[in-house]
């Protein structure tokens, strides 16, 4: 039966993927990441602004809980959003996410106290972003198969473009035009509103093609029930979750996440402490995110050539070493160089771990950022081998590439807890100076890189092997 199916797949021409409908949906997904992970990547701007103005009576540690709670809610609610997108489709979830995101944005404009920011910018905005982000990414993985790498690259670029544009926009409104904080966020809300309407209108579930129907009919006609195929598809995820290499990899990425966001969130406050202007401090966040986009694209190609695990280890270890050099950047040129270097290496961040199709792609992100992750393909090969014959299993595989399989959800949940406490720890360490913060961030990243290296050596002990 396998030979018959394989011959049928070889003879059938793949359907055209970049249709008008799929392209518009891809643009909608780009906008989703622009408004969610892109805005999250700009939190360093708010960290500096809140500490200098509205929340000046609170410590960096207290303010950091806003950004860490936002990160936690995005990753944590990725799990239920991933379950629901298969059951009800993307449109209801996008509608809920759009309403929650817009409501949170306008509520932030009214905030005066820390607890209000935690509720509006931390919890409500995080939940809304999760229900915008997950359906958009899941839909793109289902619309594109042969060109998934290119589609993911375009989609994930939205987070980096957002990380570039949002800080510049906020700087112009707050520091140049003298717009109040309340009206600045209302303007942000009016910008996000039409983008959310566009997402809801354009991101639609992929139609079931004749190509898929024929293939499914061929398989089921050979006497195999749908339940048999589902059982076969379930074996792969169960085996991978019990795989020690996968568990070590998840542990390494979670440990690295503890220190990942520290430079992103505190680069602006560090710059102002070194005597740089507030405007330049805002622009440093844009520079860091711009460099991360270049890193995501370039390492996507390098991973195909040198191996996913190898690139994952090298980029995390490089981020750790650069983070430890943070306080040696004491002038304008040095701080800009640090932002660009860290942005480039952290573009392939633990928080963006997912299966890496050929070509440029990331993480979302999450920054958060996010984060173009490069480690999962070797572990997923066995799962794909067992699942690729049936359309239901292929659909499940597509979603697992982003967040929504049991495997991805388990890894994402561990990252969410790391992201929740990692940044407040950084804020607490600031009372001992930025040297303590840089050592903490670098040590967490290097410890995570060490665990990723162990997972890599379990795959192949030869140092020069492509893994």
UniProtKB/TrEMBL annotation:
UniProt membrane topology term: Multi-pass membrane protein
Residue ranges crossing the lipid bilayer per the database entry: 24-43, 63-85, 92-110, 116-138, 150-169, 181-203, 246-268, 280-299, 311-344, 434-455
Keywords: Membrane, Transmembrane, Transmembrane helix
Localization of this protein: Membrane
Ranges of Basic and acidic residues composition bias in the record: 212-232
Pfam families associated with the record: MFS_1
GO MF terms held by the record: transmembrane transporter activity
Gene Ontology CC terms, in alphabetical order: membrane
Residues in Major facilitator superfamily (MFS) profile domain copies: 21-467
Region annotation Disordered: where it falls in the sequence: 212-234
Main location, first listed in the record: membrane
Family: Belongs to the major facilitator superfamily. Monocarboxylate porter (TC 2.A.1.13) family.
PANTHER family for this protein: MFS-TYPE TRANSPORTER AFUA_1G00970, MONOCARBOXYLATE TRANSPORTER
Protein name, entry field: Monocarboxylate transporter
Record organism: Aspergillus oryzae (strain 3.042)
